[in-house]
Amino acid sequence: MFLYTKDAPKGDLRKIYGETLVELGKKDPKLCVVDGDLSTSTKTAVFGKEFPERFFNVGIDEQNLIGVASGLAYDKDRVVFASSFSIFLTGRPWEVIRQHIGYNELPVKLVATHAGITVGPDGASHQMNEDIAIMRAIPNMRVVVPADSNILKKMLYKAYETPGPFYIRLSREKFPIVYPEDVEFEIGGGFLLREGRDVTIVAVGLMVSHALDTATILEEKYGISAEVIDPVSVKPIDVNLLAESAKKTSKVVTVEEHSIIGGLGEAVASALAESYPVPIKRIGIPDTYGESGTAGELLRKFELMPDQLAERIYNWLKTF
Amino acid sequence: MKASVEELKEIARQVRIETIKAIYLARSGHPGGSLSATDILVTLYFGGYVNVDPSNPYKPDRDRFVLSKGHAAPALYAVLALKGFFEKEKLYTLRKLGSPLQGHVSRKHTPGVEASTGSLGQGLSIALGMALKAKVDQMDYKVYCLMSDGELQEGMSWEAAMTAKHFKPKGLIALIDNNNIQLDDFVTKVNSGIYPIEDKFQACGWHTITVDGHDFKQLIEAFEEALQISREKPVAIRAMTIKGKGVSFMENTPAWHGKAPNREKFVIAMKDLGVSEAEIEEFLNRYDN
C-alpha cells in the first residue's frame, strides 16, 4: 500500500513537476505553460527550455498570468499549466481565477509551489497558509495536495486528463517518499495508510509523513492506536473514507501545514458534521502569520513535529 | 459581406433600439456604456472586421472579440442577435432568471461570446492569451478587445499591455471606448490618471490611432490601418465617444451609467431613436404588460 518508513528517502516535488511537464509536452503538442518570473524555482523553466514556443514567462504580473493562461484555454482545446509561488498564484489574482478559470471551467491546472510555512527564511510575506481556504471556495475548483513526489506525478497526469480546473499545492521542501511509484490516484479518493482504533489522524502534504511518525510515537509512548488517512484531495474530499474511520475511532484530528481556518481541518469537519459527527481537533497554523526561520524551526514553533503532534493528540484525547 | 456606411448607421440605430428595449424590460442594466460602444461594435461585426459564423460560433479560425467592458452586454447581445447568433426575441429575456443573456457577458450562456467578463480590467489579458494561442497554433485570426476608459484604472490592463509588447502576438487590437464617464462621475473627476491614453499605450510598445467613435468612416479607416499594423505590433484605437449616444437625456450623463429608464423615459428614448408611437405602443403592449 505505502512505502513510508521513518528513514524514507526524500523526493523533490518541484523536480518531478518540471520533468512531468516535459513528458506531457512531448505527448501533447498543444499543451502550454505559463509562469511569472519564478520558473527556475517552480521548475517550469525545464518545460520552457524544451518547448520555448509554448512557454510564456509573463514576468511579475500574476493577474495577467492568469488572464493569459485563461485566454490560451478558453476554447478548451488544450491543457494549460500555470505556476508561481502559492501566495502569488492564488492570493494576488484570486478573483481573475474565479471569473475565468472557475466560472468557465477552463482546463487550467494551477500548480503552486512554496506553499505553507516551510518556505522558511523568506518570512510571512511568502508563507501562504490560506491558499487551500481560498481555492476551495471557488466553484468547480478541485484542490489536491500531494504527500510525496510519486503521488504528485500521478496527480499531474490525472489533472492533465481530467477536464476543468485544478489547484495542486506543492511546497519548497523535499518530502519523504510515502507512496510507491505505481500508486493509483483517483480524484476524491483518499488512502487509509495505517489502521487504528483510538483516533483518526487526517493529514495532507508534508504532514502525511509526520502523521505516520506521530502514530508510531502514539503507539510506542502512549499506547494509543491511531489510524492515519491521507485524503489527497481536499476538494472533493473522500467523505466515505472519513466517516468509516470516524465510526471506528470516534475521534478525529486533522493536521495541515495551513491555517486551521478554511483548510483541511474545516473540510474534514464539514464532511463529518454532515455524515458522522464526532469530536474533531484541528491542528495547523493558528489564526496568525509565520516569520523567518528554517522549515524545521518553524514546524517546531507551530508544534507540527511528530513528537509535538503526538503529545498534543495525547493531551486532547485525555480530555474525554 | 461588408455593410456600407449608410447601412451601418441603420444597423446601429436598430442595435440602440434593441439595447434600450432589453434594458427597459430588464428594469436594470447599463445603457450609457452600451450606447457609446454601439457604433464600434456595429463596425466590427457588420463592417467585415470580426469574421464569425453564427452557425458555427466557435470555429477554430474565427476572429475573436473580447468584451472587456462586460456591462455593455446589451449592445453586444443586440449585435449578435442581428448577426444571427440567436433569435431577436431572446433579447427581451435579458437579466431574467434562466435567460441565456446574463447581466454581464458569459461564454457559458451566450453563443458568440468569447470570454465571460464583468469584472473590469481583465479582457486585454484574456485577448492576449487568445492571440498567443494563434501564434502557438500558427493561425492568423485577429483578436479584438473592447475596453472602457474607466477600466484602464485597473493595473491588470497595463500588465497585459506591457506583456503584449514582449511576446509580439499578431492581430491583437484593443479598442478603448473613451466616453469619459464611469459609475460615480466623469473619469476626469474620479481618476484622471488614465490620460493621456495614447502615450501610455505607445510607451508600452503599441501603435495608437485616435478616432471619433461615432463616425463610421473614421472607424473603418482606423480598423483598416489596425489590420495592417497589427501584423507587426499591437494596436490600440482610442475611440472618442459620447456616453448614452443617441438618447437625448442619457447623453454625457454619469447618472445613466447603470440604470434602466422608466416607462416615460423609455418612450422618449424610443422617439429619440426614431421609433414611431405606434411601434412603441405595440412593443409595450406585447412585452410590458
From TrEMBL, chain A:
In its keyword annotation, does this UniProt entry include rRNA-binding? no
| Occurrences of domain Transketolase-like pyrimidine-binding (ranges) | 11-177
Write down the SMART domains for this protein, in alphabetical order: Transket_pyr (SM00861)
Record key words, sorted: Thiamine pyrophosphate, Transferase
Identify a single GO molecular function assigned to this protein: transferase activity
Cofactors needed by this protein, per the record, are: thiamine diphosphate
Q: Does the keyword Disulfide bond apply?
A: no
Superkingdom, according to UniProt?
Bacteria
The family database entries (PROSITE patterns) matched by this protein are listed as: TRANSKETOLASE_2 (PS00802)
Q: Which family does it belong to?
A: Belongs to the transketolase family.
Q: What is this protein called?
A: Transketolase family protein
Q: Which organism is it from?
A: Aquifex aeolicus
